[in-house]
Amino acid sequence: MPGLTDRFERVHDYLRISVTDRCNLRCLYCMPEEGVEFAPSSDLLSYDQIVEVVETGARLGITKLRITGGEPLVRPGLDGLVRRLSAIPGICDISLTTNGVLLADQAAALRDAGVNRVNISLDTLDPARFQFIARRGDLKRVMAGIEASVKVGFSPIKLNCVLLKGVNEDEIGDFLQLAYEHPLHVRFIEYMPIGHADENWKNHYLPLARVLEIASERKLLTHRLDSIVGNGPSEDYRMIGGKGSFGLIHPVSDHFCQRCNRLRLTADGNLKPCLYWIDELSVKPALGDPQALSDLFMRAMELKPLNHEMAAKLSDEAQSHQPTARRMSQIGG
């Protein structure tokens, strides 16, 4: 079997790399309004250290990378890191998740450096609501980032929309229409209780079955797609006659843990087997020692759980393990 196979015979070939825990927005589902305490810059992995970890991962079977944050584009020189990562033998696909605010100015350099595709967070098409959800920033800059992504040739371009009951669920039809009229891939994502499984999360959580109901109500005929490049856990659909597609990512109502193929590297240097649980392995003591780094990857495989049990929090059921207390921005989505 390939090197990175866990106890449940899931093969891991995908590493998500958070390059910073900082962000230029304060989205209400990602961090509290007052923000979180950011790690000192000295605690973050250097680009040299990230490259070292990825080189070890590639030797063990990692082929796909995703650059995340926080907001990755706030860290200077990101295109230089991408260029180095794309040169590592075995790495064949590099993608980026961003809020899009700074993307218009960096899209060309990132494409040239080796980023193949982008996921852009877009939770609303309404400027005033954007201010409510993101608590700062400008929707126009995000839309400019999407336009720049089309221009430089990122493909596919995915728009990540976290659905929040009572906040943006009335825009589901508008997002479906956007995907019908344009060659974009809208992905509706359930609100996850990462670091804050509180009443606010329960009140705003919305199962994604509602998306298919609205598509039916609008007489948008759909058919399932086998795959979109980099689709991961998304359940994908195309609307007949439409130019784009949409996907459902429902980690709470219908978790996809049985297909999980990913590990995460946090900005402060921890290898994380599962987004939800508390387990993290610091790579810093192993830097400079390829065998020790390899051993950490294998240890992550041993720690990888069968599933995350997020849904248990909706009904306050007991869980088998301890959830993380870190917010999404501190882990890397």
Q: Any idea how many domains?
A: 1
Strand order of the largest sheet: 7-8-9-6-5-4-3-2-1-10-11-12
- Counted by DSSP, the helix tally is 10
Decide which structural class fits the backbone. Answer: alpha/beta
CATH H-level superfamily: Aldolase class I
The helix content, as a percent range, equals: 25-40%
Instruction: List SSEs in N-to-C order.
Output: EHEHEHEHHEHEHHEEEEEEHH
Taken as a percent bin, the fraction of beta residues is 15-25%
How many E strands? 12
Structure description:
This protein has one domain (14-331): Aldolase class I (TIM Barrel). Helix 6 links the parallel strand 5 (157-163) and strand 6. It is built from ten helices and twelve strands. Helix content is 29%, strand content 17%. The model has no long low-confidence stretch (mean pLDDT 88). The radius of gyration is 19 Å and the shape is globular. Helix 1 packs across helix 9. It has 333 residues and is of the alpha/beta class.
Main attributes of the structure:
333 residues, alpha/beta, TIM Barrel, 12-stranded mixed sheet, 10 helices, 12 strands, globular, MoaA-like, 4Fe-4S, metal-binding, iron, rSAM_sf
What is the compact description of this entry?
It catalyses: GTP + AH2 + S-adenosyl-L-methionine = (8S)-3',8-cyclo-7,8-dihydroguanosine 5'-triphosphate + 5'-deoxyadenosine + L-methionine + A + H(+). This protein has 333 residues and is an alpha/beta fold.
